[in-house]
């Protein structure tokens, strides 16, 4: 880097951009593992219910007629003619218990009812709860996969742009060495002009930074999406526990209070607790989280990490060979007949080239429209006697044309006489015409 480089600016090439995509992917893996854990828990719990329902079914089978005592009923009783425990008798849970028969019949009814509730609960968990876990886990896996694929594309593009930038900087370094060894007097290919190569560095730097900004925005969206997804995941598990607790309570099955207590405890967990812990531990690796809890603050945090080309430097950024002698917007006449003038950006470099660009932006004008090597050009002023036209004519071979027999002629117009005079004098000096005209004048005087 040259001695007069901005020592306070950051390096364009040494930046290690933040990439939290692997961290986010690993975080998705943890939530997928958590969802799978709870799915397996309820699958095992469902297995317990299934086994319990089978045991209840065995219990109910013991209430067959030939295994129950059949105590006689008094003829004067309201239950005359009915023997509890018979196959044809129908249980009435509201009937007054008057003896062993009625109690056994009620016990049979309650046992059968409990067996049906357990079987229904087991079926509902298997057919409704477990599929929800599978779907939620599948959605998380899809999000993780999409993120990983997109992050891979971003990394690949950033690496490619970084290589282009490094190559441009190396070419600029080489051209500076050639320029300095020739003391700026020899003719260089315009494509190796330090000024042109610096424009190339600026172009690739702009493209790289734009991609970095896009990558930061991508990471910001994914981190905020993960924050929302974490809330949804915990809320999903909470709702599942509440749902199962309600089903157990409705089924009046075993240990409903246990599930009720678990549900209340689980519901007390802050939806953002895990995210806060995660962001606190990894705040140096995330682009959108630095003690920020709201989306607007997260956006501001991410935007602060974006780089600007104006604040960065690179090797030979300020080398004299890359700085133009003169540059600015001039008007050029279109064609020989057409009187219309169009504005373009013109640059005279230390290597004595005159460049014509559509604009000063390397991004919008990557290559020059016209390149003239001034020592091989003719030059004349088209200014009127009253200094009113402000025109200059430059003729020479256009270096952008591989085969050029006819010379290119540029008729350039400035806004003021002083501006025209400045451009004409610099063009004359760089092309060597000033010295030639002076020698001619001296020869004539002698």
TrEMBL record:
Which organism does this sequence originate in? Answer: Komagataella pastoris (Yeast)
Q: Which domain of life is it from?
A: Eukaryota
Which protein are we looking at? BA75_05007T0
Q: Where are the transmembrane segments?
A: none
Where does the record place the PH domain? 323-432
Phosphoprotein as UniProt keyword: yes
What is one Pfam family matched by this protein? BAR_4
Q: Which UniProt keywords apply?
A: Phosphoprotein
Entries under InterPro entries matching the protein: BAR_4, PH-like_dom_sf, PH_domain, SLM1/RGC1-like_PH
Gene3D superfamilies per UniProt: Pleckstrin-homology domain (PH domain)/Phosphotyrosine-binding domain (PTB)
Q: Region annotation Disordered: residue ranges?
A: 297-317
Signal peptide location: none
* SUPFAM superfamilies xrefs: PH domain-like
């Amino acid at each position: 880097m040259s001695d007069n480089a901005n020592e306070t600016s950051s390096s364009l090439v040494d930046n290690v951009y933040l990439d939290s995509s692997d961290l986010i992917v690993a975080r998705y893996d943890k939530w997928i593992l958590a969802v799978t854990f709870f799915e397996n828990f309820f699958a095992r719990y469902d297995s317990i219910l299934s086994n319990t329902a089978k045991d209840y079914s065995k219990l109910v089978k013991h209430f067959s007629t030939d295994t129950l005592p059949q105590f006689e009923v008094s003829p004067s009783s309201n239950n005359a003619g009915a023997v509890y425990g018979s196959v044809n008798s129908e249980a009435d849970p509201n009937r007054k218990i008057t003896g062993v028969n009625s109690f056994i019949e009620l016990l049979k009814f309650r046992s059968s009812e409990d067996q049906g509730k357990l079987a229904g609960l087991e079926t509902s968990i298997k057919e409704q709860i477990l599929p929800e876990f599978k779907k939620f886990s599948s959605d998380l896996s899809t999000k993780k996969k999409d993120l990983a694929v997109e992050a891979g594309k971003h990394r690949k593009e950033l690496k490619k742009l970084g290589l282009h930038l490094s190559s441009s900087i190396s070419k600029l370094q080489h051209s500076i060495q050639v320029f300095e060894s020739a003391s700026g007097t020899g003719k260089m290919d315009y494509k190796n002009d330090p000024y042109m190569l610096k424009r190339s560095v600026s172009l690739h730097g702009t493209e790289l930074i734009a991609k970095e900004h896009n990558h930061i925005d991508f990471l910001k969206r994914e981190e905020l999406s993960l924050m929302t997804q974490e809330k949804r995941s915990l809320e999903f598990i909470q709702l599942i526990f509440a749902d199962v607790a309600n089903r157990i309570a409705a089924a009046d099955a075993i240990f409903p209070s246990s599930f009720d207590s678990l549900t209340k405890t689980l519901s007390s967990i802050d939806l953002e607790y895990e995210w806060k812990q995660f962001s606190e531990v990894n705040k140096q690796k995330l682009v959108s989280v630095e003690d920020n809890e709201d989306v607007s603050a997260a956006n501001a945090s991410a935007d602060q990490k974006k780089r600007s080309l104006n604040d960065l430097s690179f090797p030979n950024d300020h080398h004299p060979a890359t700085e133009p002698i003169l540059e600015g917007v001039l008007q050029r006449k279109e064609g020989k007949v057409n009187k219309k003038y169009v504005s373009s950006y013109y640059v005279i470099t230390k290597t004595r080239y005159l460049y014509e660009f559509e604009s000063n932006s390397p991004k919008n004008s990557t290559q020059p429209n016209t390149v003239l090597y001034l020592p091989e050009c003719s030059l004349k002023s088209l200014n009127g006697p009253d200094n009113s036209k402000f025109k200059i004519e430059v003729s020479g071979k256009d270096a952008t044309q591989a085969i050029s027999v006819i010379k290119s002629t540029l008729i350039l117009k400035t806004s003021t006489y002083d501006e025209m005079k400045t451009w004409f004098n610099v063009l004359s000096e760089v092309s060597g015409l000033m010295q030639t005209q002076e020698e001619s004048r001296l020869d004539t005087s002698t």
